[in-house]
Prior knowledge:
The protein is α/β, with parallel strands linked by helices. The protein has a single domain, classed as 3-Layer(aba) Sandwich (Rossmann fold), CATH 3.40.50. The protein has 7 helices and 8 strands. The termini are far apart.
Amino acid sequence: MKLSSLILPLIVLLAMPAAVFAQGKNVVYKDGTTGLTGYFVKANIAKPGAPGVVILHQWLGLTDHEKESARKLSLLGYNAFAADAYGTNARPKDMKEAGEKAGYYKTNWQIYQGRIKAAITELVKLGADPNRIAVIGYCFGGTGAIEAARANFPVKGVVSFHGGLAKDEKRPADAIKPKVLVLHGADDPYEPEAEIKKFQQEMRDTKAVWQMNYYANAVHSFTQKEAGNDNSKGAAYNELAAKRSWQDMKLFLAEIFAKQ
């Protein structure tokens, strides 16, 4: 066999985008009797027992945005699972229904926490190291990531991208063990300053190890291209904020997953 016949396929293979190696699959699982359908991408490494990251969706339900995050995380060496909080075939039909569904789970936070716990359990079943799990989320899912910390689920840390921070003050405030990273648009109109201050005080009161990063000229949904570019609408994509927040998340995950 000629050497050239071996070299050419290798050159083509190396030239292919890395994302082609991150092939995901739909996964059906349950929270009690509720059927859920998530999206799993195995870590792009040879050895088993890689850390795992649960990705929680924004209020419209599981979309390509969360799936793309899962594929990117797999290329970083993480088993990634984009979870489903609403249920199989229960994705909102429009913004109105999305608001209603997200509002229901924010109010009924015990149910929301149950959906998150089910996703963590499923990710471990799919091969993630049970001792090295993180939860990240976008918007409504960012609220969910913080709920995972409030529930003290067996995770190393949580990351909220432009998530809701509010919490009913009547709820108990136990010491928070997972590390917390909040990635926030400096001009987000949906998070009043008073609410931010209450959240920060909550972090202090619960003795959490937390960090909150602000991104200039960024409003709500700054990681989501489908949000458009008009800041005046209150939700818009910001390329620089999206890139910087992703890098901040990468540093955070490397820190919490570092083997002692």
